[in-house]
Write a structure and sequence with these properties.
The chain is α+β, with helices and mostly antiparallel strands and 326 residues long. It has two domains: 42 residues, no CATH class; 264 residues, Oxidoreductase, molybdopterin-binding domain (Sulfite Oxidase, Chain A, domain 2, Alpha-Beta Complex), CATH 3.90.420.10. Helix content is 19%, strand content 20%. A hairpin with a 5-residue loop joins strand 11 and strand 12. The protein is globular. It starts with 18 loop residues before the first helix and ends with a helix.
Amino acid sequence: MLIKQKKSWEISENEVTDYAVWANRREFLKSMGILGGAVSAGIAGTSLSSLGAAFAAPITGFPAPRNEAYQLDRPITLEDEATTYTNFYEFGSSKNIWRAAQRLETDPWMVTIDGMVDTEMRLDAAELVAKMGGQEERLYRHRCVEAWAMAVPWTGIQMSKLVELAQPTSGAKYIRMETFHDPDIALGQRQSWYPWPYVEGVSIEEAMNELAFIGTGLYGKGLEKQNGAPLRCVLPWKYGFKGIKSIVKFTFTDERPVSFWEQLNPKEYGFWANVNPEIDHPRWSQATERMLGSNDRVPTLLYNGYEEQVSYLYKDMGDLKDRLFR
C-alpha cells in the first residue's frame, strides 16, 4: 500500500561527494588502465579486484534514509532467504547460485548511457549514483513469475533521475538495459542456447513512474552480487525477470527492446510482464504465491498490489488482460 505524502528522501548538499574527488579518482584509474575497458590483466603484479578495492570507491551511503511513503502490508522477508534463494542464469539455473556469483567483480563497474540522448556517457557506477542524487530505502513487494514472492527493503534511486540525467531526445520511447557478458567468470554464459547478454526494457513512461527504481542495495547494505550488484532494475508491479541485474548499459531507443526471456519463449515471457492473478503462466497458476521462508500461500494481487500507482500506464493499450502479461 502506498501512502501519499511529501517526498522525504533528498539528502543535504554536505552529504554529496565533492566532484573534484570523483574527477581525481577517475583520472587515476584511467592512468592505471582500469577505466575505459581495461578489465582483464593485473597491473604490476596487483589484481584488478584489489586495485578496485583500493582506488575505485564503491557505491556508499548505506544505510540510506527510508522513505516512509512506501510501506508493506506483510512482514519483511528474512535477509538470508532473500540473498540465498535467487535467480542469476549467468551463473547457472540453480536457486543456490549465490556462491557461484561471487566470481563477479563489481568494483570498478563501467556503465554506458547511449542511444537517443543529447550526450552519450560512460562512467563508473559510483559516479552515476552520485550524479543522479541521493539514495533512499523503500519497502517493496517482489513477485517472481515462478509464483514465489518476498518483501524487502531496497536501497536505490528513482529511475526518473536516470532519464533526467540522460536527457533523451523527443523520439525516444524505450530504455533498453543490458547486463555484463563475461563467460570466463559467468559460466552460465557459456550455454550457447541462451541469447546472451541478458537484455530487458521498459517504456519511458514506465521509467518515469515513481515506483520504478534503480537498486543499489538491500537490507541497508550494498547489493550482494547474486542480487544484482552494483546496479539492478526494480519494478515492483512486474514479474521479477524484468528486474535485470548487474546493468552495464542503458540505451534510449524508439524501438521496443526484445528482452532475454521474450527471445527464448514469447508465449510464456512477454515484454510487459505485469503481475496479474487472472492470467496463468502456461505451465502453472498465478493466482497465489509462496512467500520465501514459509510454506504459506497468499493471494496474488493485480499489479502486485500497486494498481493505483501504475494502472494508468496501460489504460489505452487495448485488451488489458492480454497486455498485462504478454
